[in-house]
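F.,

This is the one I mentioned.
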């Protein structure tokens, strides 16, 4: 990919991740790591052999090493060598093994490296498109490499084999057939859908195919290119108004401490439970509409805090809540600025 390529100012990357453990397992054997720096995004999805703690250790080591070393510019061969040296051999299988998919952006280009993972799905205008790839062997591992140039509304869907194997021997003969999965996405995904909503939609279908007792750890990560949308979040006493020059975009107002507490509480639940995105699509209550605007529709959020006249302990608690709100939004990939007025 071209060096120093920049994303157009009106566009931004959006990501969404949902995961669910295999039925009866306390931890997930998959690991997804997402990092963002300026307008660049990196996603690593790794699936450890088996399930439970040992699979979790293998996928965590693999994802962490691949993510950290590639960001530091190490050649892929060195990254894979480090993974091979770090992975513990499992007692049950006598192997040290984890798959991985690595996605990194540069401008509107996306580089995809995949080792033994289900091939990523590329969605454009609600249709799954075939894409060319090159294959090379590194330390006896076949690595598939793809470079895509994306436009607004395009999505790239990564997933572990909990998706491709969904329903095997229960509701499907040999797992979720690729064409059937693509048909499902064609019927259920719109280009304007948030990345997390798409990921949750896929996991919902997997749950149904597995009769709601997942037979494997399941992870879905979606990367979407979209147009920016600015939102002003005004927090203050009744009658507060925006400072001049900050009215661009959509404005939401929280006029009391209780409203801020409710919003922070539901935003935390949303951060922990990706499936909440499906409920937001139909919800019409005030707090759900605010959550949808901030967590999904907005890309850039200006938090404007207007101090109350009776400063004191309550004001300090409110500022703590505002800072927590900012952290939650940044963890969801939002560009957040904070101003005290």
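My design for it:
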């Amino acid at each position: 990919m071209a060096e120093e390529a920049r994303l157009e100012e009106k566009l931004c990357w959006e990501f969404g991740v949902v995961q669910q453990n295999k039925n009866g397992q306390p931890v997930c054997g998959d690991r997804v790591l997402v990092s963002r720096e300026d307008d660049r995004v990196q996603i690593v999805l790794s699936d450890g052999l088996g399930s439970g703690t040992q699979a979790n250790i293998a996928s965590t080591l693999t994802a962490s090493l691949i993510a950290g070393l590639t960001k530091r510019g190490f050649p892929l061969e060195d990254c894979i060598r480090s993974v091979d040296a770090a992975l513990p051999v499992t007692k049950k299988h006598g192997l040290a093994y984890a798959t991985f998919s690595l996605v990194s952006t540069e401008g509107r280009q996306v580089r995809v490296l995949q080792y033994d993972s289900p091939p990523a799905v590329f969605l454009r205008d609600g249709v799954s498109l075939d894409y060319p790839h090159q294959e090379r062997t590194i330390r006896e591992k076949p690595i598939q490499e793809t470079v895509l140039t994306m436009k607004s509304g395009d999505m790239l869907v990564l997933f572990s084999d909990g998706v491709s194997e969904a329903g095997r021997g229960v509701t499907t003969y040999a797992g979720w057939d690729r064409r059937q999965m693509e048909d499902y996405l064609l019927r259920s995904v719109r280009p304007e859908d948030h990345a997390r909503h798409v990921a949750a939609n896929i996991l919902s279908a997997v749950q149904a195919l597995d009769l709601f007792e997942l037979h494997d750890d399941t992870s879905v990560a979606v990367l979407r290119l979209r147009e920016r949308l600015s939102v002003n979040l005004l927090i203050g006493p009744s009658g507060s108004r925006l400072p001049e020059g900050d009215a661009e975009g959509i404005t939401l107002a929280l006029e009391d401490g209780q409203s801020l507490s409710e919003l922070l509480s539901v935003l935390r639940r949303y951060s922990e439970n990706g499936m909440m995105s499906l409920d937001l699509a139909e919800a019409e209550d005030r707090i759900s509409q605010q959550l949808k605007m901030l967590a999904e529709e907005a890309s850039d959020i200006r938090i404007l805090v207007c101090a109350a006249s009776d400063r004191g302990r309550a004001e300090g608690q409110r500022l703590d809540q505002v800072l927590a709100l900012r952290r939650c939004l940044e963890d969801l990939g939002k560009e957040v600025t904070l101003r005290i007025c």
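The first strand starts at residue 11 and ends at 20.

Talk soon.
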